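Record format v2
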Amino acid sequence: MALQYTDEQKDFLKMVTEFADETLTPSVVKACDEAGSCPEELFKPAFDMGLHMLEIPEKFGGAGLSYETTAMIFEKLASYDPGYAITLVSTFVALRSVMIAGTDEQVQHFADIIAPGKFAAFALSEPDAGTDAGSVKATATREGDYYILNGDKTFITNGSLADVFVGIFRTTDDGNKGLSAFIVEKSRGGITAGKHEDKMGLRLSNTTDVAFDHVKVPAANRIGDEGHGLKVALNSLNLSRAFVATLAVGIMQRALDESVKYARLRQQFNRPIIKFEAVQEMLADMATQTEAARLMVNNTMKMMDAGSLVRKEGAMTKLFVTDAVQKATSDAVQIFGGYGVSKDYPVEKLMRDCKVFQIFEGTNQIQRVTIANELNHEYRD
Amino acid sequence: MDILVLIKGVIVPTQKPAFDEKGQLTAETSTAILNPYDKNAIEAALQLVDDHNGDVTVASYGVATTTEPALRAGLALGATKAVAIDSPLVATDKDNDSAIGVVLAEAARKLGQFDLILTGSQALDMPQGYVGALVANSLNLPYFDNVNALATVDDELVYTTLWEKGTITGKVQEPAVISVTDSINKPRLPSFKTKMMAKRAELEQLTIDSITVIDQSAWDDLNKQAPTSRLAPLPVQKKKSVVYQLADDEAAVTKLITTLKAQSIL
């Protein structure tokens, strides 16, 4: 691989490999994929290792790793199961979104909830507010020192698992400027998770609707000023885009590993199929794309470590990697031939798992809009 | 409950070992890891401390290149303190295990009062497994060998050890020295947070420059001992290959069996 890992990074990769070999065995992953859910206890060892707080600063109880190193660890984890990885990513991205505009006390409060091993969720999307995040309808109405939250959120990762949410609610009718972000603890009452989505992929990950019904939160739970909610949401999405791209690299690497191994073993016309140029082309493209994707993610992570918001780079990385993973997994199925579509072989799941990566955290269509807008901004007189 | 765990840095098992002119493993040229059996001892200590509060101290004797990785791995697993032990008194240095056992006992005495001293049942690279016995003997403490279960029952520490006809179970009178097997528990994985903290942690240095736990004459006798063993890599055997080309299968099988029998393989 083109990336040069430090001894420390190699050490961490060894740790996560040892963890995943033990926890995410093929039979466990297959059972969760078939069931379309995952037992919460399967995350206990991840919480014990602190995988949900890797890049959270030590003063808040995290391990204080860089984004770059965290991404390497999550790429490895996603190669075992991206649904498992995204459950943990969603938890720390929710905490990170508190860090974007919240006070140290708010961050510490949020971190104290999840540190011992609890899930968190970011609640933005609504039935009528997907790509158009500014059209959020769920409301937060001020009543003295409290806000009363009402409304329905949809496609919430960790929806029925989370003990704490970061939610985006409308505080005024002033369009994009009327949104505010809140920390919402499940213990406040009035929060109901809907049915778990029966998804084509990432089936291990918990995705539900979440209904907020007269949830009373203190005004001290508001993250940043009133009207700054969309900014919190968009900055949080910059971060999560980079991380979903990381997970997609993990899927690509897995597709490559499985394909090369299979192509070396599978014999047709008295020789392994890796000897055929048509197969070689697919493998070579897959390897090259994986390498490029990994480097792109690595560069974005380094920029984030340096304090950049990666508006353009995050969008470009998400766009490139999550498009590339579609071809890589589709070719993996192609190389496996008839066995590729069988659930007894590992590659059909990769193809199912990766589709949503072009959709969530902003569709790849909207990424192009973001990139173009940034270009327009860069080149103005 | 305060527990001291005596641990060792061993050469990475997959690495080709290097030997010096005396036939000893040269730790300086090799990458060391925490002896896997000592991980079980640390885990046993952490589990007891989880139940009873207290501290787990890890200590290791030797050169920094082997003690440091072992001690930092111990801290990453959850030990509260790590001590690197050295001594100018050990005449034949690293190959005199008997003297090292006494030095470890002396170090244990100097480090304070411990309710238990634990070790792994053996080192991966030197499987004699007598450090625990030497330490217990030097400190006049009871010794429980190859313990594969350790639990508190009604405020008493109960051990179980395997023997060929079953198990032996008894009570441990503290303080005591216990060596544990690799079947006693499944060592935890370190957390990323403790791993990061362990990388930066200060390792306490302890130099043993006088021996008080045993008589001077007994120490002199032990310390004079020549190395009991000399290590040598296995001689490389030249591989011979012979190709027989026989027309029919039956003759080929007969030839193969005759050849294998001639070499006492069958």
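The mean pLDDT of chain A is 95.
The CA atoms of residues 16 and 73 of chain A lie 7 Å apart.
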